[in-house]
Structures are given as C-alpha cells and as structure tokens.
Design brief:
InterPro entries: MFS, MFS_dom, MFS_trans_sf, Proton-linked_MCT. This protein is an all-alpha fold. It contains 18 helices and no strands. It has a single domain, classed as Up-down Bundle (Growth Hormone, Chain: A).
Length: 442
C-alpha cells in the first residue's frame, strides 16, 4: 500500500510513514525487553512464600500476621494494574515501568531494618505491591496490543511465561540464600535485580511503533495517539462501563479463582505446606521452580492455542484440569519427592498461567481498544482472590494445623470457574465491542 507523505509541520513521531526494512521487526526487540523486565519482576513474587517460616522464627509473628502483608501485596498488585495501564497511555510505558522498578527496590531494601509487622505491611505489602502491580500482566497486554497485530496470542503467551521463567531463575537462588544466609540477603537480591532492569527499560523500550516510524507487526501504520489525560478518571470510567456487561463479571470471577488457586495458594503456601510434611525448604522451592519450567511450555502453547481455538472453551478445560490436580495434592505431599508428586508438578505447571492468553483475548474481543484496561481490572480480581486465599491459607494453618481444607476448597472453586467460563457469551464475528468509556473498534 502506498504511504502518503505527512503534512508540513506535523510531528514526525505521529505521522511519518513506516520505514521499510529487511531486518527483524522492532516489535520483537520490544517484546524481548518486556520479557526481561517481567523476569525481573518475578523475583519479587517468588520471595513471600520463602519468608513465612524465617519471619515466624525470628520475630515470632503468626503465619496469619505475615499473610496480611502478603495479602496487601497481592491485592495492590492487582488494583494498581488498570491505573498503571492508563498511566502508560498518559506518560508512556518507559517512565511508568522505570519508576515502578525504583519503588520496588526501595521497598525491598527497607525490609532489612523492619522490627514490627506494620513495617512489613508498608514495605513489602504497599511499596512492593504498588511497584510490581505497575509491571503486571496489564503491562504485557499493553505492549502486545500496541506492537502486534499478528501473533498476539503467541506473544501474550511468551510474555506471560516470562513470569515463570523468572521464578525458575530466582526461586532456587533465593531459597539457597534464605537457607544459608537468612532472609535479608534475599530481599537485597530482589532490590538489586529491580535496579538492574532499569537501564534495559529506559534505553531499549519504546512506547509506540510510531515512535520509530513503524507499523505494528502484521498491521498497518497508525499515527501515535495523543497522550490520554485523566488516567485515573479513564480507568474508573472504563471499569464503570465494563461493569454493566455480563462478560466482565464472568471474566473477573474466573480470574479471581485463578489467583486464589495459584498465587494465593500454591506460590504462597506450597513451600510451608511441604515443609509441614517433612520436606526440606530447598527441595520444596526446587519443585516450585520446576513448575516454572513447565509453565513456560504450557503458557506459550496456550498462546498458540488462543490464536486457533475458542478462548472460553480453553478456559473451561484449564480450570477443570487444575481443580482435579489440586484435589489430589494433600495425599501426594511427603518428606521426600516421589514420582506421583513429580507428576502433579508437571501437570499443574503446564496449567499454571495458561489461563492468561485466552482471558486477555476475551477482554480484547469484548472491549476493543479498552481491552488492556479492562484486563487490568480483571487482573485486580485475580489478585484479590489471591490475597484472600493467602490470608485464609495461613489462618487455616494456624487454626487447624494443616493446609488440607484449603487445597480441597480451591479444587472445588476451579470447577465453578470452568462452568463460568462456558457461560461467557460469544461475540459474533464483526460485531461491535462492548460499550466502554474509551475508544473502540469493531
């Protein structure tokens, strides 16, 4: 297609036509930087489950008390996401993510000097929660939506898998540090990792294809839109409009159960639960890292499936299989790692965040250009579900001396999520997106 020349006096970043080049499209390098950033962010999410026992032993804080800080962290991680997506529209991806990394580093380092539970809530709960929430999956959805038209499902799967890759990189190291040197060096390691990612973000990440005169990968050139004022107002307006539609509540409900059965339960409580059965902490952390290995394969495959199959059916299958696996976990935990537990780790790992690509696809399908912000609110429900179970899991352990009831309850909730996914109605091909507060496409 012939590109028209920009009108005289027009800003180049918004009107110049895309350059023709035989090199690899710039979108892939942007995706690579995003991948590295999310890997760094995974270090922050890997640590809470390793802190429960050390903090309990050093300060004599109950697991429920520690769980409050983890719950605040998880809740803010989700609640921040839609506002961060809107702020990226207003100030740009680079500025928001770089500031978020600095906030995380400050919060992680400050925990070294804490002496009271409220300080844990402030540093790890509030500061790290706000910072990591700004680099949540809404960040991946924003990058994918701007830079890719083709292969969106696959790229979403790859970026989602970055979290699992980061878990694989950081979890064994952090577990070794906690076991050999205590929890403080582990928190400092997280802070250093956050700061190390900042130069990559600032130098290599770009906010929009038009900044470098390109069209999105697989798409046609479009000028860079003007910064959207009123980021907080826009995020709330999109929520208010989306909340009037049925698909939003079904997606939010299923994703809340997703968070409850992954971040809130397994990521937070698997290590202490395995330790209750006599398994060494390093061995249990190693199993979580193995989950990360298979999560990479499962999530990338899910992105590929999302480009080819109906998203709501994929969600139903994923939730049903996850629920079945959780029902068997209480009888698999033992002092040593046995083949049935390894089978669970592989099976559960393939399903860990496979729900993300079809959920993002459904948000984009039903809400058009506001899909990233809507997904941010859906992600908030994910983290609220995770926060509730992170607290209730610790409370159940304190009251009953066992995590069994939490595993069984999560398995049952996953069955409910599978049914909810099938209820989400399909949008007819070419039909209008659900009405929201921002711009839309058919």
């Amino acid at each position: 297609m012939t590109q028209t020349a920009p009108a005289p006096g027009t800003a180049p970043s918004r009107t110049r036509p895309p350059r023709r080049t035989g090199r690899v499209h710039r979108a892939w390098s942007v995706a690579a930087v995003t991948f590295v950033t999310i890997i760094g962010a995974a270090g922050f999410a890997s640590l809470p489950g390793l802190l429960i026992e050390p903090l309990h032993e050093e300060f004599d804080w109950s697991r429920g008390t520690i769980g409050v800080a983890v719950s605040v962290n998880l809740a803010l991680y989700g609640i921040t996401a839609p506002f961060a997506a809107a702020l990226m529209d207003r100030f740009g991806i680079r500025r928001v993510v770089a500031l978020a990394l600095a906030v995380i580093a400050c919060g992680a380092v400050a925990t070294v000097w804490m002496t009271a539970p409220w300080q844990l809530v402030l540093c790890w709960g509030v500061l790290v929660g706000l910072g990591s929430g700004s680099m949540a999956l809404a960040f991946a959805a924003t990058v994918t939506g701007r830079w890719f038209t083709a292969r969106r499902g696959l790229v979403t799967g790859i970026l989602t898998a970055a979290g699992a890759s980061g878990q694989l990189v950081f979890l064994p190291l952090l577990a070794w540090l906690v076991d050999r040197h205590g929890w403080r060096p582990a928190t400092v390691t997280v802070a250093v990792a956050a700061l190390a990612v900042v130069p990559f973000v600032w130098l290599l990440l770009r906010d929009h294809p038009a900044d470098v005169g390109l069209a999105p990968y697989g798409g046609t050139y479009a000028p860079k839109p003007a910064p959207a004022p009123g980021a907080a107002r826009r995020a709330l307006k999109v929520l208010a409009d989306a909340a009037r539609t049925g698909p939003f509540w079904l997606l939010a409900g299923t994703f809340a159960i997703c968070g409850a059965s992954t971040n809130g339960l397994v990521r937070t409580h698997f290590v202490p639960a395995a330790h209750d059965h006599g398994m060494p902490v390093t061995a249990a952390a190693g199993l979580l890292a193995v989950i990360g290995v298979f999560d990479v394969a499962g999530t990338v495959a899910s992105g590929w499936f999302t480009d080819r199959f109906e998203s709501r059916r994929l969600l139903a299958v994923y939730y049903a299989l996850r629920g079945i696996s959780l029902l068997f976990l209480p009888i698999l935990l033992a002092p040593s790692v046995r083949p049935p537990l390894i089978f669970f780790i592989v099976f559960y790992g393939l399903d860990w965040v496979a729900t993300v690509p079809p959920t993002i696809a459904l948000c984009r399908e039903h809400y058009g250009d506001d899909g990233a912000i809507v997904f941010g609110w859906v992600l908030a429900s994910h983290q609220i579900g995770a926060a509730v179970v992170a607290f209730l899991g610790g409370l159940a352990r304190d009251l009953t001396g066992s995590y069994d009831v939490v595993w069984y309850a999560s398995g049952a909730l996953c069955a409910v999520a599978a049914l909810m996914a099938m209820v989400i109605r399909r949008r007819p091909p070419g039909g209008a997106a659900e009405p929201t507060g921002g711009t839309r496409h058919a």
